Amino acid sequence: MKKKLLLIFVIVILVVSAGIIYLNRVVLPVKIKALIINSLQEKTHKQVSIESLRFGIFKGLVLRNLVIYDAQGPLVSLKEGSCTFLIWPFFRKMIVIPSLNLKYPQVFLERRKDGTFNLQDLFSAKISGAKAQKFQIFVYKVALTNGRIHFTDNSLAQTFAKDIDNLNLNLYLSLPASVKFNLRGEIPENPLIKINATGEFRIPEKHLTAKVSIKDFSPGEFLAYYQGLGVNVSEGLIDTTMGLELNILADKQVNGYLDILNGIIKLEKIGSPIEGINGRLEFSRDYFKCPELNFKYLGLDYKMTGVLTDFHSPQVQLGLYSKGLSLESNFAINNKLLRLSKCEGRYLNSDFSVTGDINAEEFPKLNADINGELNINLEDIKEPLKKFKTLLERINPKGTMHAQFTLNGNINDIKSCVLAAKVSSPSISAYGLKAKELALTYNQEGGIIDIPLIHLSLYDGTVAANAGMNLNSANLPYWVSADIENIRLEKLKLDTAAKEKDIAGTMRAQGKINGFSNDLSRLNGAGNIFITDGKLWELNLFKGLGSLLFARDFASIIFSEGSCGFLISDKHIFSDNLKLKSNIAELSGAVKIGFDNSIDASLNVNILDEMVPLSGTFKDITTAIIGQSGRFGVIKISGTLKEPKYKFQPAVADIIKGLKDIFLKR
Fold first, then answer.
1. Contact (Cβ atoms closer than 8 angstroms) between residue 292 and residue 279
2. What pLDDT band is residue 182 in, cutting at 50, 70 and 90?
3. pTM for the complete prediction?
4. How far apart are CA 587 and CA 608, in angstroms?
5. Calpha distance 415→403 (Å, rounded)
6. Which residue has the higher pLDDT, 222 or 113?
């Protein structure tokens, strides 16, 4: 019995071996190989080559080096494909393949200049007079290992190319009626961009669900696709998880979501990165939603929300929120026209609103026609302008300002825009000085700024000014003209470091200056200053002159009037006609004050006849000298405005004459 079984076994082995040899020498390499090549060429309208087709005991049917190509080169290649199949279903006209293995496949995917893909040609060809299929084919599992996709996009201004390497895909049937899959791949960058995906396709409902995760995604590597939008994400990595749901039966409805986990983005024009990006983005064929996206920038936490509907003519709602900040906008996009129906926000104690149109038809030009309102609390500007902290602390702006404006032109070139604004404020302050009832009119056209009106109330007086600037010049030349009336110095001093000093008077002035914004040395100007009903003796510049000139009985002399004409040039302020009048003496002469607070002055001292003291039991030399009117001497002032230095040069001839008169009278 054993011998018979052994004999049968040997016969079976011989028959099978003979069959395999026949298959591998005649059927497969000649007939089946030719049949496969002809069939693929007919279906794809491309050239097809196969190196070999053999049958093995363990791998089953093995195909090596399949290439589908056209005149431009290969489209699809496969180093090895193998499959086993069950024998008994074959007699029922069914081919059942438990496992199909594809090793080292490569796909050469190209997007043409017209936006179409080269692989579309493989699936768009139709076969006329196709015969009815004689066998049903069932594949229970597909395993793809070490695949590669070569992607080239020629539809952009510069050709973009990327590969997906180490592509591994497993597809398998899952009871009762679905196909499940998992996929892994890498994009060779530094660091590697890793892609993982899992999902299921339910056959009866034709319903696909999938989850895709991407780790270390670098937006900068795909800059070519969005740099035209004015955004340049040159650095940063993002980890994302994306969910996808596709119902083919429901009018090809697509639903899905994208989870972003701890993403980091560094924008080219923003020094600090946007970090800790976390949230879910939901999408379908009809909308794109951002229920809540959280991120951190410059140490502050932010939240963003948004909805986009109608992809053909998008309607967008966006919201951005943080501590002290809220921003909401609604806009519609029609072709290259953005219509802003709402853009309003609040930052700390300031708020704004803007409406209008922005047209990108001539991109990168963004032609705008917008109008808006601003309500600004000046103290709120300190936080966003931290880099000017030292300057702002010195200016110390306070108060509120209201502005209404209209803007027309290319907002990517503000100086070329037509801009009109009206600004008002009930009260503002800068450098500690307080003003009320500010009114300002601003006009800009053709790169020229014209401010025809600046008006404000200041310490019982008024300031009226106008100004202009040329934005077309690199040096930004400007001019300012001002008329100051009836400023009360005793009120102004209360908001300065001189508030404890006995200073008073009414000041009026007129002046005009012009210069270049980037060169203080080229500042020029001229004007006049007048002071009446004054008490100026305690100003640093004049304090101490009394004890230098007069007896102690007259050291508290009050200068009640002052005037001068001045010129500004070479980083100095000049006056050759400074006059200060008191009830006893008059000072007049030339003064030169530098922008560095230096001072160089030469003042003549004249005694007034009608105010000379005529009585007293004792007079020192100074008192005796002022007993006669006339030129008394010259005061030289040097040092700085904060710490002036004085030198007295007596008028010798006048002094001798005064002494002579005294002795002769005696």
1. yes
2. very high
3. 0.67
4. 11
5. 19
6. 113
- Contacts by 202-208, CB closer than 8 A, 24 or more apart: 202/177, 202/178, 203/177, 203/178, 203/179, 204/177, 205/247, 205/249, 206/247, 206/248, 206/249, 207/245, 207/246, 207/247, 207/248, 207/249, 208/244, 208/245, 208/246, 208/247, 208/248
Provide the residue type at 216 as one letter.
D
List, as one string, the DSSP characters of 542-561.
TTTHHHHHS-GGGTT--EEE
Q: Is 278 left (phi over 0), alpha (psi -120 to 50) or beta?
A: beta
pLDDT at 10 over 90: no
E strands, 175-251, in order? 178-187, 193-202, 207-217, 233-235, 238-247
Q: What is the mean pLDDT of residues 499-523?
A: 89
* Residue 248 token pair: 């083919």
* Cα 454 to Cα 467: distance, rounded to the nearest angstrom: 8
Spatial separation of the C-alpha atoms in residues 213 and 243, rounded to whole Å: 9
Q: What is the mean pLDDT of residues 425-445?
A: 94
67, containing H or E segment: strand 60-70
The burial class, CB within 10 Å (0-12 / 13-18 / 19+), for 637 is buried
**Taking 90 as the threshold, does the pLDDT of residue 406 lie above it?**
yes
> Which structure tokens are listed for 243?
């969910």
At 127 the pLDDT is 46
Name the percent of the chain lying above pLDDT 90.
Answer: 41
Sketch the domain layout of the chain as residue ranges.
30-122+134-174, 202-323, 536-665
Tell the residue number behind the tokens 């100007």, with chain if given: 525
| Tens of pLDDT, residues 616-657 | 322 344 444 444 445 567 888 888 888 888 887 766 555 555
Residues belonging to the chain: 666
User: Distance between CA atoms of 625 and 606, rounded to whole angstroms?
Assistant: 11
CA distance 171 to 406: 61
Which DSSP symbol is given to 473? Answer: S
Q: What is the pLDDT of residue 5?
A: 61
Q: How confident is the model at residue 220 (pLDDT cuts 50, 70, 90)?
A: confident
Query: Are 179 and 200 within 8 A, CB to CB?
Result: yes
Sort strands 160-174 and 94-97 into parallel, antiparallel or unpaired.
unpaired
Q: Is the pLDDT confidence value at 615 over 50?
A: no
| Choice between 254 and 316, residue whose per-residue pLDDT is larger | 316
Q: Which position has the token pair 């497969």? A: 28
Burial 325-363 (b: 16+ CB within 10 A, else e): eebbbbbebeeeebebeebbbbbbebebebbbebbbeee
Q: How far is CA 136 from CA 43, 430, 502, 622, in A?
A: 18, 87, 110, 130
Residue that is written with structure tokens 């009106």 in the block: 453
